[in-house]
Amino acid sequence: MRRDSIFYKLFQTYPALLFELVTNPPENASEYKFDSVAIKEPRFEIDGVFLPPENESTGVVYFCEVQFQKDERLYERVFAESFLYFYRNRDRFSNWKAVIIYPNRNTEQNDTISYDILLNSEQVNRIYLDELGHIRELPLELAVMLLTTVDEEQAPQEARYLLQRTQQERPKQLKQGIIELITTIIAYKFETLTRYEVEEMLGITFEETRFYQDIEQTGREKGRKEGEKSLIFRQLTKRIGELSPEVCQRVENLSLEELENLGEALLDFSSIADLENWLKDN
């Protein structure tokens, strides 16, 4: 189950949710923006970063890591990435803090002696979801977060309860996002079930949710791309002969838009050199 993407989608929709988990949250928590950032040389990609408002001269940057599998080098990576990003952006931020989210304490790496000073300071908040409380006693967004840890036997019942709470507690314009998150979690938990079986399980219809719209859109685009590739390869073979495995792989890696452009350009090809030049330029 891809829990980290679900958590980051939650934070993207409700950035202030992170600050319900930490001690001493900033006064302007509601103004923070959730983002992912890249650091070059060496290349790092930090998925969860909470950035203070840009209109502030300096502010505190929060790094968030969701970890559901044991990693004995997690803190090495998290602190290396965080320190490097903070160093590169020191003029913008006055301080940094990190939030590490675990399902339970057993998931945390065992050897922490090198980082105990940091881990036991106000710089780092370690969150163990199983210690937050019962799912039905938590604020709705935190309860949705906890749903990712519920076992398959209990998950449908708790999901139906959260859907009912959503209908009762949230205005119409805010319901859709939470409903989509709940249905996404359940769909990931029961990947072997069909869409209609999941619908029946939860007692709702997903047809209009963005989750299934995205699935259907992805399917349509994948079908278009496969059809376009098949046509391109047939046309190229007719015009310039058999293609080498290396050239075939380069064509395979093209996006749908690039394939469509190639489909127009190949009408002027007369040799493999024309194709290689096109691939080089595009």
Describe this structure in words.
It contains eleven helices and five strands. By secondary structure, the chain is α/β, with parallel strands linked by helices. The chain starts with a helix and ends with a helix. It has helices at residues 3-13, 74-88, 116-119, 140-147, 155-169, 172-189, 195-202, 210-240, 245-252, 256-265, 272-281, and strands at 33-39, 44-51, 59-66, 93-102, 124-128. Helix content is 49%, strand content 13%. It is globular, with a radius of gyration of 24 Å. Helix 1 (3-13) packs antiparallel against helix 6 (172-189), helix 5 runs antiparallel to helix 6 and helix 8 (210-240) runs parallel beside helix 10 (256-265). 20% of the residues are buried.
Topology record:
Elements: H1 3-13, E1 33-39, E2 44-51, E3 59-66, H2 74-88, E4 93-102, H3 116-119, E5 124-128, H4 140-147, H5 155-169, H6 172-189, H7 195-202, H8 210-240, H9 245-252, H10 256-265, H11 272-281
Parallel strand pairs: 3-4, 4-5
Antiparallel strand pairs: 1-2, 2-3
Helix pairs in contact: 1-6, 4-5, 5-6, 8-10
Structural key phrases:
single chain, 282 residues, alpha/beta, Trna Endonuclease, Chain: A, domain 1, 3 domains, 5-stranded mixed β-sheet, 11 helices, globular
Overall CATH class of the largest domain: Alpha Beta
The fraction of residues assigned to DSSP E strands is: 5-15%
Distance between the termini: 36 Å
Strand order of the largest sheet: 1-2-3-4-5
Number of helices: 11
* Overall SS class: alpha/beta
Cα gyration radius (Å): 24 Å
Name the shape in a single word.
globular
Describe the biggest sheet?
5 strands, mixed
CATH architectural designation of the largest domain: 3-Layer(aba) Sandwich
Number of domains: 3
Order of helices and strands: HEEEHEHEHHHHHHHH
- Could you tell me the number of beta strands? 5
The CATH topology of the largest domain is given as Trna Endonuclease, Chain: A, domain 1
- Measured as a percent range, the helix fraction is 40-55%
